[in-house]
Amino acid sequence: MPSMIGIPGLILILLIALLLFGPKKLPALGRATGQTLKNFREAVTGKDDEKEKEKEPATKV
User: Fold this and answer.
1) Is residue 11 part of a domain?
2) What CA–CA distance (Å, rounded) separates 41 from 48?
3) Is the residue at 12 inside a domain?
4) Domain residues for 36?
5) What pLDDT digit, counting tens, does each position of 13-60 carry?
6) Which of 26, 32, 36, 58 is most open to solvent, judged by the fewest CB atoms within 10 Å of its CB?
7) Is the pTM value of this prediction over 0.90?
8) Cα 37 to Cα 40: distance, rounded to the nearest angstrom
9) Which residues are within 8 A (CB) of 39 and not within 5 positions of it... i.e. 6 or more apart?
10) CA distances from 7 to 11, 53, 58 (A)
11) What pLDDT is stored for residue 46 in this prediction?
12) How far apart are CA 34 and CA 53, in angstroms?
């Protein structure tokens, strides 16, 4: 459970990530993670389908 980690656990996770990826790659990693979560959330909620409908031109029948 994420609520059970606490502040010391989060600090430890951040230190390990800093050691593994280095200070130059952490911002890019955070950006990529955020973009992935945003895309996943849009796919789950169906917002992506609404965007596709708006982009499609109206066809005449």
Assistant:
1) no
2) 9
3) no
4) 24-61
5) 989 989 998 988 989 988 999 999 999 999 888 875 666 666 666 566
6) 58
7) no
8) 5
9) 48
10) 6, 44, 53
11) 81
12) 25
